[in-house]
Prior knowledge:
Blueprint: H1 3-17, E1 21-23, E2 31-33, E3 41-43, H2 50-55, E4 73-75, H3 86-99, E5 104-116, E6 131-135, H4 139-153, H5 159-163, E7 171-178, E8 181-191, E9 194-202, H6 211-225, E10 230-235, H7 240-246, E11 249-259
Parallel strand pairs: 9-10
Antiparallel strand pairs: 1-2, 2-3, 4-11, 5-10, 5-11, 6-7, 7-8, 8-9
Amino acid sequence: MHIDKANITNLTGLWKKYGSRPINGGALPLQHANIHWPHRCWLDWSRGDIVYTMLGHLNDTSWLKYVPKSAILPIWPMVSDNENGDAALFEKLLIEKQLQEKKWICTFEQTAMYMKLQEETACLSLTRPGFQVIPVRTSEDIKKWVDIGSEAFAYRIDLPVIENLFNDKDIQILLGWQDEQAVACALLYKTGDIIGIHQVGVKQTFQGQGIARCFMQAILAACTMWQGKYIVLQASQAGQPLYEKLGFTAQFTIKNYQRV
């Protein structure tokens, strides 16, 4: 599988584990939506004929009425195992002609990134005294994780969503501890030999102290120990410089749209 497609497959697979449900897409292929956090709704990009379906319905915006009112609609270039010239055309048609026509706006962007893991990554040393990374073990740990993530990202993460992932063999829920205080959170999701890093956040009072870099080094080591071949993630504008310093390569932009 092409690494661009692997990134999206990992991301949408996690959204499905969060509890999405299929919804009618109207003229377009089936959509999926989370009716609670993270409030994502996305098209079934796996359909190989999606570009040609769009070309046949250039003026049909009825599919947007099926998108839940609170939803964030992420748009990325169509990615597949075979490179083709349709990706940019599809994005232009969908975003510029239909979303903007209906006065949807891009509220934030993310950069899809990846890294190939090396064996030596497992030997990365933690240079911060008193800092350690431990998987969540109790319901109280999960509450700490949710509180840290909610504060770091300025939106409320639904506790039951994370609780439902506690025993999933393909997921690791991690807490970063500084001197016995939980200060950072992250979630790893494994699809084959691809490991996605999600929801990396640091408590506001501990930001700017180098914890994020130390935390990420520990996460990279954990991914290597988990026998991952590649790591994928979706970086915010604020987080991208750190990931670049750690060796991640940018892939493509994800534009997140919402109703005005």
